[in-house]
Amino acid sequence: MTDIDVQAEPAEEAAAAQDGSRPSLVDWQGQLLASPGYRALALQDRVKRMGYVFQGNVAQYQSLVAGLQNPAVSGPILDVRNPGAHDDLLSEAERLLHNVLTAMSTRVDQQRRFMAQYFADDPALTNDYREKLTSVFKTDVQANFLKGLRNYITHSQLPVSKSKQTMGPASFAITFTLPGESLLRAGVWNGDQRAWIAAQGEAVVIVDVVDSYARKAGEFDKWFFDRIGLKCRADIDAYLRERAEFDREVERLFGV
Questions:
Q1: What are the strands of the beta sheet with 162-168, ordered from one edge?
Q2: Given the DSSP bridges, would you call strands 171-179 and 162-168 parallel, antiparallel or unpaired?
Q3: Residues 6 or more apart from 56 whose CB is under 8 A from it?
Q4: Label partner for 23 (CA 20 to 30 A): which of 1, 133, 169, 170?
Q5: pTM for this one?
Q6: How far apart are CA 106 and CA 110, in angstroms?
Q7: Do 232 and 37 meet the contact criterion of CB atoms below 8 Å apart?
Q8: Please, which residues have CB within 8 angstroms of residue 82's CB and are 6 or more apart in sequence?
Q9: Per-residue model confidence as pLDDT tens digits over 149-187
Q10: Residue 185 CB contacts under 8 Å (≥ 6 apart), including other chains
């Protein structure tokens, strides 16, 4: 021993118990990551990520439509002297719609597996989930139409989109439609779906159908996210309190 006290480095202090009961920072962090509260937050994050893939594809489709509302953008594309530009536009619209429908199916399948994997032993949440799913989607003819359209493009082809322009003295709007006649020729619809397609007239305004479904899906996913939070509120609150204490200790030791 010397007469000079050697001050412990922060890393050494972090690795040692502070008062005989508190674990090292490494062990403490491991306990936090293994806690029920952290797991609940991770499950909520999974719900957000499943929804994001779908909503991100919808946003790209909506962005294409929104850009066309500017006559300076859509004018040259709609010019009959330049048919190639319009064909390219329809190809892009079909590509983005394909991505929307594929992501829609992925979201549904992932949520179904997610529920079975993590909440099969929770009858209350499972029952709430199924009831909400039924009330929002099961009897929604537009949601069922999109599901049928997804099956159609999987086994056959995506019906060719058409652009539809509406012009007034001081207004201009453009959207995309799917011709009703070609849709009805596909043998993938049940009676309710066929009746709905026929009721749309010459064409289904597919942009409006996608927008409506995306809004309902977003509201459902928020409900699901919040429902997990409600179920796990005590665990999440306990984790957040412990995490705040952990962060204060890290700041005390390292000044960060």
A1: 162-168, 171-179, 203-204
A2: antiparallel
A3: 103
A4: 1
A5: 0.86
A6: 6
A7: yes
A8: 76
A9: 998 888 777 777 899 988 777 778 999 999 999 899 887
A10: none
| Amino acid identity for residue 121 in this structure | D
Residue type, 8: A
Average the pLDDT over 211-219 and give the result. 98
Residue showing tokens 């040692």: 16
175 in Cβ contact with 207 (< 8 Å): yes
Average pLDDT score over the chain: 89
Rounded (10°) CA dihedral 80, 81, 85, 90: 20
CA nearest to 253, candidates 27, 8, 6:
8
C-alpha distance across the termini of the chain, in Å: 33
**What pLDDT digit, counting tens, does each position of 86-136 carry?**
999 999 999 999 999 999 999 999 999 999 999 999 999 999 999 999 999
Residues found in the chain: 256
